[in-house]
Amino acid sequence: MSNNSNARSSRRSNASGSTPKKTSPKRLFWICALLLILIVAGGGCGFISATLSNLPDVSNVRPSASSQIYDVHGNLITTVHSTENRLPVPLKDVPKDLQNAFVATEDSRFYSHHGIDPVGILRAVWVNIVHSGVSEGGSTITQQLARNAFLSQDRTFKRKISEALLALKIEQHYTKDEILEMYMNQIYFGQGAYGVQSASHVYFGKDASQLTLAQAALIAGLPQSPNYYSPFNDLEASKKRQAVVLGQMVKYGYITQEQADEARQADLGLVAKQEQTHEKSNASYFINYVIAQVSEKYGDDAIYKDGLKIYTTLDMDAQNAAVAAMQNLPNYYTDSNGLHQPQGAIVAMNPHNGYIMAMVGGRGDDAFNRATQAERQPGSAMKPFVYIAAIQSGKTPGSIVDDSPVTFGNWSPKNYENDFEGNMTYRYALQHSRNIPAVKIADEVGMSKIIKLAKEMGITTLTDQDNNLSTALGGLTHGVIPLEMVQAYGVLANGGVKVQPTAIIKIVDRNGQVVEENSIQEKRVVEEKDAAIITDMLESVINGGTGGNAAIGRPAAGKTGTTDDEKDAWFVGYTPDLVAAVWIGDDYGSETLGISGADTPAVMWGQFMANALANTPASDFSVPASAQSAVSEGYYNPVKAQPKKEAAKDEKADKKDDKDKSKDEAVKDDSGSKDDATEQKSNSSKSKKSSKKDR
C-alpha cells in the first residue's frame, strides 16, 4: 500500500515538472497574420473614416467659368478668365455624338456602375499588359470628375482612395446626366480651354451644339493627353486619337462603321490658331473700364470665375472709327516707358441714353485710361459754361460785350492774337473764342454760378479754388476728364437733360439670371430753350469760327480748347445723335504741342464723327418756339458791321455793289436775320478751315 502511494506521488511529481508542448510554426503564422489583418483593417477603417470626414462637399460642383463681354448689338467682343478659360454649357446643348464619344472612350460602363467600376479597372490593367497601351482608362467618368473638381493631380494612394470615395458620394447625389454635364464642363482640352464649349470655340470657332461627328470625336480624344493630341501641336497624332474614339463608338454601338469611316475622312474645319481668341486690342481701354467696374462692384472672382455675360454699350463701328482717328496723332518722341508722345483720348456717348459708344484712352500700353482718368486743362472748352450761365441770366446771342483791355487785380487777360476788336455780339465772341469777352461775361454773371452749373452738368473735378475768373478760360486747379466733358456737352445735345454715362447695359449670370440691368438715369439741369440757344451758338463755332476743321457736312456744334502753353488741345462737340471729346497732350505736361484745338483735335473729331455716323441719317437740332427768336441773333459783329468771315467772303463775291449798304444795315440791326444766318451756316460749312486760331 505504501509502495503504491509512493509510486503515484512520484508520477505526479514528474508530470508537474515536465516541459510544455511547443506551438507549431504554422499555427504561429496564422495567429500573426490574423493580428496583422486586424491591425490593417482597423487602420484602414480609421484611414477611410478620417478620409470620409475630410471629403469636400459635393452638393455644389461649381467650376470656375469665363465671363463674356458683348457689344451693344450682342456680338461677342472678348472672353475674360483667370487661369481656366471655361464656358459652361448645359447637357441639352451638347450633341449626342459628343456625349456618346466620351462614354465610349472614357467609361463604357458609365450608365451601369455606381462611381467605381471594378470590371473597367481589371480590363484597363489587362489592356495595358497585353497591348502595351491604353484604349480605355481605369478611372470612371465620375472619378475623373472627382479628381478634376476637388482633388490635386498627385499620384498618391491617399488621393486614389479619396477619389474613389468622392466618386461614390457624387453618384449618390447626382443623376448620370448631371455627372456627365459637370464632367464635360470641367476637364481640360489643351490650348487653355476647359470644358467642351471653350474647346469648341478654340479649335473650331463654334458652339459645341454645332459640332459634327468628326469634330466631336476629335474633342473627346483630347482629355487623355491634351497637349500631345492637340491638332495645333500634332495633327497626325490628333487624327489617330480621333480614329480610336470613332472605333470605340462603333464597338459600343453608338455609330456604324460606315459613319466612322466618313467621319475619319471629313474635313475638320479647324480655325487658325490666332483666331481662337477674340481680338480686343481695338477696344482694350473700354474692356478694362468694364472689368474694373464689375470687379469693384462684385469682386474679382465674379468676372474671372463666375461666368458672367456682360452686355455693354460699345458700338464697334464707332470704336473702329475712334481707333482710326487716333492715327492722326503726331509723334514727337518716345518716353522712357516706350510710349509715343503726345498721347490722346477719344470718348463718345449717345446723349439720350448715356451709352458710351466708343472709348480710346491712349495709344500703346492700356494701363492708364486717359479718357476716364486723366485730369487735363480744358482751355477754351470751358467757355460754353460761361455763356450758358449768361443765357440763363437773360442774355442772348445778340447781346453786346466790349472786347477791350481790362485788368482784374494783378491779372490782365489777353486774346490769343493779342488784339482787341471792341464791341461784339456774344455769338461772335464765342464763335471766335475771344478771351477778354469771356472773362468780362464771367465777371458779370458770377463765377460761383458758372462753377455750380458746370458741376450740375457733370464736371466733378472743380474745387473751391476754381472760384476765380481764370476758370472762365480753362485755368483749373485739377483739370477736367474727357468723359465728364462728354457728359456735360451731352446735356446740350439732349435738350438740357443730363444722363449718366454707362458702359454696361446688363449682366447675366451663368444660370441666365439677370444680375444687373441699368436704366437711363436722367435729370434736367438746363432749360430746353437755353440749351437750344447755346447749341445754335456752338454751331457757329464750326460754321465759320475756330472749329472749321470739325465740319462734317451735317448739323454739328462744338468748341475748341487750347491752354496758354499749348500743352493741351481739345475739341468737344456733338450732333443730335452723338457727343464726343478729343484730347491731345503730353503725359507729363512738359512738351509744347505747337498746335491748338482748332487743328489736330478738330480734324480728329470730324473724322471720327463722319465715320461713326456714316449709317445715321443727318438731322437738325430741335429748337423750341421759345428759342426761335434768340437763335437768329448775333450773326453780325456790330463794330465791324459784317457777317462772320466765311460768309463775308461769299457775299463779297456776289454783292460787291451792296457792301457799304450791308455794313450800314448791320450796324442798325445787331441781330441780323435768320435767313442770313442760315445762308452763312450753309456757306461756311463748305470750308474746313478755321478763320481764327483758338485760345
TrEMBL record:
Basic residues composition bias: residue spans: 686-695
Catalyzed reactions: [GlcNAc-(1->4)-Mur2Ac(oyl-L-Ala-gamma-D-Glu-L-Lys-D-Ala-D-Ala)](n)-di-trans,octa-cis-undecaprenyl diphosphate + beta-D-GlcNAc-(1->4)-Mur2Ac(oyl-L-Ala-gamma-D-Glu-L-Lys-D-Ala-D-Ala)-di-trans,octa-cis-undecaprenyl diphosphate = [GlcNAc-(1->4)-Mur2Ac(oyl-L-Ala-gamma-D-Glu-L-Lys-D-Ala-D-Ala)](n+1)-di-trans,octa-cis-undecaprenyl diphosphate + di-trans,octa-cis-undecaprenyl diphosphate + H(+); Preferential cleavage: (Ac)2-L-Lys-D-Ala-|-D-Ala. Also transpeptidation of peptidyl-alanyl moieties that are N-acyl substituents of D-alanine
Matches recorded under Gene3D superfamilies: Biosynthetic peptidoglycan transglycosylase-like, DD-peptidase/beta-lactamase superfamily
Biased composition (Basic and acidic residues): 643-679
Segments of skewed composition (Low complexity): 1-16
Residue span, Penicillin-binding protein transpeptidase domain: 344-577
Glycosyl transferase family domain location: 74-249
Region described as Disordered: spans on this chain: 1-23, 629-695
Keywords for the protein's UniProt record, in alphabetical order: Carboxypeptidase, Cell shape, Cell wall biogenesis/degradation, Glycosyltransferase, Hydrolase, Multifunctional enzyme, Peptidoglycan synthesis, Protease, Transferase
GO molecular function, one term: serine-type D-Ala-D-Ala carboxypeptidase activity
Domain of life of the organism encoding this protein: Bacteria
Chain segments annotated as transmembrane: none
Short name of one Pfam family: Transgly
Record-level GO cellular component terms: outer membrane-bounded periplasmic space
BP-aspect Gene Ontology terms: cell wall organization; peptidoglycan biosynthetic process; proteolysis; regulation of cell shape
PANTHER family with a match to the protein in the record: BINDING PROTEIN TRANSPEPTIDASE, PUTATIVE-RELATED, PEPTIDOGLYCAN GLYCOSYLTRANSFERASE
Family: In the N-terminal section; belongs to the glycosyltransferase 51 family.
Annotated protein name in UniProt: Penicillin-binding protein 1F
Organism expressing this protein natively: Veillonella dispar
Taxon lineage: Bacteria, Bacillati, Bacillota, Negativicutes, Veillonellales
